[in-house]
Design a protein that fits this description.
This is DUF3365 domain-containing protein. The chain is an alpha+beta fold. It contains ten helices and four strands, in the order ααααααααβαββαβ. Helices cover 47% and strands 14% of the residues. Bound molecules: heme C. Heme C binds next to helix 8, strand 1, helix 10 and strand 4.
Length: 248
């Protein structure tokens, strides 16, 4: 069910929507969703911070191991959120999800070590978003029947077919996160069936910052360094979203 403010007024389904909102707003599901998005997002920031090193054709051995990326991501996560990604008192199932994310983050860097260390090659296509997609795919291999994470974007902005939004993501991007009244940074949550199973879904908006615009900015259509046409985005525009599914 859709429970927008407009829906409340127009349809007068206040009670039904309140019930749906309560189940969609399960505090611990939202917290674990934010934890997963937070740690994988920190990994993306760490890869981004090393982009110059990764693209350096003159250095072979770069010492950018999976262990190091994870350690730096955990440090960044703690700085951003004031606690480590795995804490005492977490439920077993929640701990397993966060540990699966950390393992995926480590494995994907380690598996790309030879590429990252390749001498004589500048741009290697090992970008924050690519890293994130590979981590999300590995995470699904580990815990896909329990949870999924996806880095997606509105259809007109999507670059990689694998990141295309599904019907629910497309609707929430268009009619919630992408509307002028949506509070900046606020996630959208909903209790809804996914593949016939009850699930908690969450979409966390991601906006373009200045650093994104060399690829996603203007002029629209011009080829960027990665070979994709630029989207014509501007600073502060909705650039995409992290989509979390937790099966119940
Ligand atoms: C060096 C160029 C470059 C920069 C800088 C860059 N991106 Fe991207 N972005 C890409 C490429 C290439 C992909 C497709 C990656 C893949 O293969 O999955 C992508 C994918 C994405 C996606 C996933 C959906 C899709 O289109 O496949 C989002 C969301 C995104 N970028 C947002 C951002 C944001 C936000 C920033 C800044 C914080 C940023 N990007 C910076 C090149 C860039």
């Amino acid at each position: 069910m859709r429970c927008t403010r407009k829906g409340l007024l127009v349809l007068g389904v206040v009670a039904a929507c309140a019930a749906a909102a309560a189940s969609a707003d399960n505090g611990s599901e939202r917290a674990i969703g934010e934890r997963l998005a937070g740690i994988i997002g920190a990994g993306r920031s760490v890869v981004s911070s090393h982009q110059g090193l990764i693209n350096d054709p003159d250095i072979g051995e770069k010492n950018l191991t999976g262990e190091r990326v994870v350690a730096e991501a955990v440090e960044l996560y703690e700085k951003r959120r004031g606690e480590p990604p795995v804490t005492e008192g977490m439920k077993e199932g929640e701990r397993r999800l966060v540990e699966a994310a950390l393992a995926a983050m480590r494995e994907i860097v380690d598996e790309n070590e030879a590429l990252i260390d390749m001498k004589g090659l500048g741009f290697k296509g090992f970008l924050p978003a690519t890293y994130t997609r590979l981590v999300n795919e590995r995470f699904a291999e580990k815990v896909g029947s329990e949870a999924r994470v996806k880095f997606t974007a509105p259809p007109e902005l999507v670059r990689n077919r694998k990141a295309r939004p599904d019907a629910w993501e497309q609707r929430v991007l268009a009619s919630e996160l992408g509307t002028p009244g949506w509070p900046m940074g606020e996630p959208y949550t909903e209790a809804i069936e996914v593949e016939g199973r009850p699930a908690f879904r969450m979409l966390i908006p991601e906006y373009y910052s200045a650093s994104c615009l060399s690829c996603h900015g203007e002029p629209k259509g011009q080829t960027d360094v990665t070979g994709y046409p630029k989207e014509g985005g501007r600073e502060g525009d909705l650039g995409g979203a992290t989509s979390i599914t937790l099966f119940r």
